[in-house]
Design goal:
The chain is α+β, with helices and mostly antiparallel strands. It is built from 13 helices and ten strands. The protein has two domains: 158 residues, no CATH class; 113 residues, no CATH class. The structure holds cobalamin and iron/sulfur cluster (2 copies).
Length: 312
């Protein structure tokens, strides 16, 4: 009975278009405690929202008291295009080339919950994608979707790390998957390639990460220590993923909405610099880039252009 239900839930998740699914028991995960150390070191910088609802971030049962199982899902967002190496183009990280993943994953998780509830009355749950106080990567690792690599992302053997994560937390007991082994081995390519030394094995100081500096650090100039290290990144950064050997096993996604829109894979810096606020909003209205306020986006574009004039 439990195993039939488990298999049905996994089948449904895959048929709705998730590329990976795994299930873990809802319990307190030992590694969740590292978050406290991370916050106390100030590694979250200006992301003060990471301090909120700490009890929930540490234990999923605080978020949903009826929780028994965590169904972790992943969606592949790799598309077969590469970042332009031409200096006239800015670099937007791959995850933001297409439409915002939150909406796409949430819609599918909602549908999954509806289907589960209609087949198993009495089963209920809550769904989460990124923005809730839950550590997505911990659950993906615990449910065997992949392992947390030294660059801190979840890596899989079939899609590399080009995956978005989400969870459906259910009030029903199911059969559980085993966490996956760590396949990083002696590799340190991500740590060596990071231009701002934001990484140590399995740990990140977000305040040094270009992704934080260009997306999450609002209303401040890029610190002097990092502004000449942006390497044309104007929204996020993919360096520690691009160099990862496991990302040679990527497969193009079948999700059309993740494909690049408006030439986001090679936007012209001078065109971006000239955008008005209204046109910026319109151009990026469906993209995760809209998370960055206009002022901060233009700050990033200007910082990259300034580096180039300094190089000449
Ligand atoms: C805050 C945040 C950021 C911050 C901090 C990054 C980070 N690593 O936490 C910033 C702004 C820098 C960021 C950047 C990016 N992010 Co982000 N981010 C988040 C968010 C909202 C919370 C993550 C969190 O809880 N961090 C807290 C710290 C403590 O967690 P951690 O670094 O994973 O730390 C763990 C390890 O250090 C581990 N640990 C400690 N010791 C040891 C020892 C060993 C041996 C091991 C194995 C582990 C281990 O324990 C910690 C607790 O889990 C999640 C969504 C969510 N709700 O979970 C998305 C999320 C992590 N981001 C995501 C993405 C896509 C990105 C970027 C790739 C975007 C980009 N291209 O620019 C980059 C990647 C940069 C990087 N190298 O991590 C995806 C990751 C998907 C994946 N494949 O893993 C997520 C899961 C969103 C989603 N739902 O899909 N992000
Ligand atoms: S995303 Fe870029 S800056 Fe951040 S840790 Fe990875 S390589 Fe370093
Ligand atoms: S680059 Fe190497 S060390 Fe870093 S995450 Fe990939 S396999 Fe692990």
């Amino acid at each position: 009975m439990k195993s039939t239900r488990t298999n049905r839930i996994k089948e449904k998740a895959l048929s709705l278009g998730f590329h990976k699914v795994g299930i873990a028991p809802a319990k307190k995960l030992e590694r969740s405690e590292y978050l406290k150390e991370w916050l106390s070191k100030g590694y979250h910088g200006q992301m003060h929202w990471m301090e909120n609802y700490l009890d929930k971030r540490l234990d999923v049962r605080e978020l949903y008291p009826d929780a028994k199982s965590v169904v972790a899902v992943a969606m592949n967002y790799y598309t077969p295009y590469q970042h332009s190496q031409d200096k006239k183009h800015g670099k937007i990280s791959r995850y933001a080339w297409g439409e915002d993943y939150h909406k796409i994953l949430k819609k599918k998780l909602k549908q999954l919950l509806v289907e589960i509830k209609s087949e198993y009355p009495g089963v209920d749950g809550r769904l989460f994608v990124d923005t809730a106080p839950i550590q997505d990567k911990l659950w993906a690792a615990e449910a065997g979707i992949g392992w947390q690599g030294k660059n801190t992302n979840i890596l899989t053997r079939n899609y590399g790390s080009w995956i978005f994560l989400g969870e459906l937390v259910l009030n029903a007991e199911l059969d559980y998957d085993q966490p996956m082994l760590d396949y990083c081995g002696s590799c340190t390519a991500c740590i060596d390639a990071c231009p701002t030394q934001a990484l140590e094995p399995y740990k990140i100081d977000a305040t040094k990460c270009i992704s934080y500096l260009t997306i999450e650090m609002w209303d401040k100039p890029i610190p002097d220590a990092y502004k000449d290290k942006l390497e044309n990144w104007i929204f996020g950064c993919d360096i520690c993923q691009d160099v990862c050997p496991w990302n040679r096993f990527e497969k193009p996604t079948d999700v059309e909405s993740f494909h690049p829109q408006n030439s986001n894979e090679m936007p012209l810096l001078n065109e971006l610099q000239a955008l008005s606020e209204d046109v910026f909003r319109l151009r990026f209205r469906k993209s995760p880039v809209s998370r960055s306020k206009y002022k901060n986006f233009i700050r990033n574009v200007n910082a990259v252009i300034k580096n180039q004039s300094a190089d000449r």
